[in-house]
Amino acid sequence: MELKAKTEKKLNISENCLKVLEKRYLMKDKDGKVMETPEGMFRRVAHYIAEADRLYGAGDSEVMDTENRFYKIMGNFEFMPNSPTLMNAGRDLGQLSACFVIPVEDSMESIFEAVKNTALIHRSGGGTGFSFSRLRPKNSVVRSTGGVSSGPVSFMKVFNAATQAVKQGGTRRGANMGILRVEHPDILEFIRCKESDKEITNFNISVAVTEDFMKKVIDDEEYSLIDPHLNKEVKRLRAKEVFDLIVECSWKNGEPGMIFIDKMNEFNPTPKLGKYESTNPCGEQVLLPFESCNLGSINLSRVVYGDEKKEIDWDKLRKLVHVSVHFLDNVIDVNKFPLPEIEKMTRTNRKIGLGVMGWADMLIKLEIPYNSEEAVQLGEKIMKFISDEAKIKSQELAQKRGAFPSFNESVFAETGAKKLRNATLTTIAPTGTISIISDASSGIEPLFALSYYRNVMDNDKLIEVNALFEETAKREGFCSRKLMESIAEKGSIKDIEEVPEKYRKIFVISHDIAPLWHIRMQAVFQKYTDNAVSKTVNFPHEATKDDVREVYMLAFKLGCKGVTIYRDKSREEQVLNINSNNTKKDVGEGLKPSPTDLKENKSVAPRPRPVVTKGTTTKVATGCGNLYITINVDDSNMPFEVFIQMGKAGGCAASQLEAIGRLVSLALRSGVENSRIVEQLRGIRCPSPSWEKSGRIFSCADAIARVLELRLGNGKMHHQEEAFEKHSPHTMIEDKLGTVVGVCPDCGAALRHEEGCVVCRSCGYSKC
After folding, report:
1. How far apart are CA 547 and CA 595, in angstroms?
2. Which of 100, 548, 638, 766 is surrounded by the fewest CB atoms within 10 Å?
3. Angle at which helices 314-334 and 38-50 pack, to 10 degrees?
4. CA torsion sign, 547 to 551 to 556 to 562?
5. Pair 668, 645: CB distance under 8 Å
6. DSSP secondary structure code for residue 97 in this structure
7. CB-hemisphere CA count at 13 Å for 523?
8. pLDDT digits (tens, 9 = 90+) for 314-372
9. 6/187 Cα distance (integer angstroms)
10. How high is the mean pLDDT of the chain?
11. What pLDDT digit, counting tens, does each position of 200-242 carry?
C-alpha cells in the first residue's frame, strides 16, 4: 500500500488540513511517528472500501476502477466519509460507522450490559445514543430487592463515568446522547440535570416531545406523566410549564435540545421492526435499537463553476451522489462491527447517511446571501436533487446486489415502490473535522468568522482570513491589512463601510443572521432528508427566553425532527459562575474593592465578562506533561480569566486544573492583586518536578504562578521575552465571536459550538 501511495500525484492540501490529518488520521508507528502520507491514507481507504465489489462478482479491473473513483472524490475533497472510516479502513480495528443506538431496558442486567457495549463502541471511535425512557422513575419500589429505583438521571451518571474512562481510538472521549420522553415522571429532573451538575459532561441531552404534548402546550392544557414500568398515569403537569422549563434551561446553556419523536417515527421505513426512541450524539441520525449508520458528506463548494458568472454543475453533483452512495453501501459490507447484534441490525436495513458540507461556501460563490429567500429556495432544490439521485443509485444497486433484507417488511413494499438497497439514504451530519480537511464550511451552517487573529507563542499576531472573502476583497480592490484587522476585532463586516454593501450582505456570519433564518434553512433541508439535520440555531447573548420559545415552536410547525440552540456566551457564564445577584455595583477595571465597598456589599461581585477578550497561551513542560495556560484580558488590558489544560490529560488532574483556573479567574475578576495569587501558588511541590530554561518547575501550580508572574507582573498583560519554550507550534485562536464554549483539551485553542457539537477549528478536535 505505501509503495503504491508514493507514486500518487501530490494533493493540494492546506497547512491546517495536514496538521489535522497528522494528528488524528494518518497511520503512526509504535513510537507515534507518522508513517503515512495524505495520499496514502486516501488510497488505503479507497482500496479497502472498493474491495466490497468482489462480493458481487466484480473482477480486478472493475474493482480498480471503483477504487480510483473513490480515491478521486476524496483526493479532490469533493466527498469525505465520517471519521471512523478515514481512521480505521484497512487497519486492524476496521470499525467504520459513526452512529449507534443502544437499548436500555428496565433491569440492572440490561443497564450494565449497555454500559459494557458503550465502552466497546467508544473504544472503536463511534458515538452512542440512548433512550432512558423505559427505566422506572426515581424512588419506585423494586420488588426483587425491596429497595427503590435510582431513576434515569442517576444511571446516566454511570454511563458518563464509563465514557470518561474510555478514549476513542486513544485520542478523545466518546460522545453520548441521552433522551427521555416528556411523559416520564422524572422529566423535570432530567430537564435540569445539566443546569449546574458537572457529572454528566459526556452527554448531550434532548427531550423527546410528542405531537400531543406540543398541541397541549399551544392550547395550555395538562398532560399525563406515565410510569413506564406500571404503564399508568402517576401525575399530571401543565404542558406549557414543562415547555417553558425546557426553554429556560436551553436559554441558560444550550441544553436540553428537543427531539420531535412522532415526526421521526412518521418517517420510520421499518416500523414493523421497532419504533425510534433515540438518536446519535448530535441528533441527526435516528436509529432503531442496535442499529448503526455510516455517514459521508459532499462538498457543495466543489460543484460550482464559471469565471464571471458562477453556476452549479448539476451533472457533476449527480455523479458525485452516485459514487458516494456506492461508497457508503460498500462500507457496510467491509465494516467490522463492535457487536453481533449491531452487525445483524445494520445489515438487515443497510442504512446510510449522505449529507453535505460547504453550503455557505456555495452560496458565497453564487453571491447569494444566506439569510435570503433565494438561499432557502436553492437549499430545497439542492437537497431534493441529492435525495432523488441517491434513490436512483440505491435502486440501481438493489437490482445488482439485492434490496435491503427487511425491504418486504418496510413501508416501501407496502406502497409498491421500487426496491432499494438502503432503508435510508440521506442525513445532514456534523462535519467538524472533515470540513477542516476539505477546507469547507461546516454542514449547512453559515460562516462563523471572516477574519480572526491567531496568536503564536512569540506573540506575533497572524491574521487568518476566509479564502473566499480575501479573494473577493483583492478582486474588488478593498483588501488591506487594516481592514482585516478591523474585521478580526469586530468579528463581522455588517457595520464596516469600507466593504461594499453587496458583499456585506453576501459575507454574513452566523451572528448576523436572525435565528428564524437558521430554522427555515434547517426545515427545507429536512424536507428531503431521510434522517435528520444536525444544526445549531445561534442566538445573540441578549436574546430572550421568548426568542428561544419562538424558534422551538417554529421548528415544530415547519416539520423539523429536532432542534438545538446556543445563546452566545451562555455556557461560558455557567461554567465560570460569574452571575451575581448584585448587578448594580460592579468591581471595575481590576481594582481592589475599597473597605467601604466591602462594608456596603458584604461580598465582592466579580466584574461581568466583556463582549471581546484577547489573550495568549503559554506552554510549560511539567513533570506530568505539557501545561497550556491561557490568560485572557479585557479591552483595558486587565487580566480577566485563566484557562488551564494539560494536553490530553483527563480525570482528576484535569478537574483540579479546571478548579485552579476557575478560582484564579474569580480572584482576578474580583480585584485580587496578581502578586497575591502568585504568592499562594508559587513553590507548591509535587512528586514529579521538571526543569525549564528558567529553572525548576516544582508542580503544575508552581508553573501557573510563574506564567502569571511573567505575564502580569505589573497587574496588566505584557509580553516580555519569555524563557518558556519559545516558538512553540502550539497556537491559540482569539475568537471575537460568541461561539466559544471552552478551551480545546488538545491544543488550547477556542472550542466552538456548531452543528449540535463542540469542535476546535484549529486542530480538528471534536467532542462528537
Report:
1. 42
2. 638
3. 70
4. negative
5. no
6. -
7. 17
8. 999 999 999 999 999 999 999 999 999 999 999 999 999 999 999 999 999 999 999 99
9. 57
10. 86
11. 989 999 999 999 999 999 999 999 999 999 999 999 999 999 9
> Pairing mode, if any, of strands 167-168 and 147-148?
unpaired
Known catalytic residues?
280, 282, 284
Cell reading at 611: 463582549
Cα separation, 396 vs 389, whole angstroms: 11
CA distance 43 to 50: 10
Question: What confidence tier does 678 reach under pLDDT thresholds 50, 70, 90?
Answer: confident
DSSP 636-671: TS-EEEEEEE-TT--HHHHHHHHHHHHHHHHHHHTT
Cα–Cα distances (Å) from 308 to 242, 314, 473, 475, 708, in that order, read 54, 18, 15, 12, 54
Beta bridge partners of 229: none
Taking the whole predicted model, whether its pTM rises above 0.85 is answered as: no
Which residues touch 203 (CB under 8 Å, ≥6 apart)? 156, 159, 160, 176, 177, 178, 194
In this predicted structure, which of 96-105, 503-512, 624-633 has the lowest mean pLDDT? 624-633
Alpha-carbon distances, residue 629 vs 82, 657, 744 (angstroms) = 32, 10, 12
CB–CB of 540/551 below 8 Å? no
Q: Beta strands 304-305 and 172-173: pairing type?
A: unpaired
> Is the pLDDT score of 612 beyond 90?
no
pLDDT > 90 fraction of the chain, expressed in percent and rounded:
61
- The angle subtended at Cα 692 by Cα 688 and Cα 698, nearest 5°, is 35
Query: According to the 3-state scheme, what is the secondary structure of 146-174?
Result: CEECCCHHHHHHHHHHHHHHCEECCCEEC
What span, in angstroms and rounded, lies between the C-alpha atoms of 731 and 511?
25
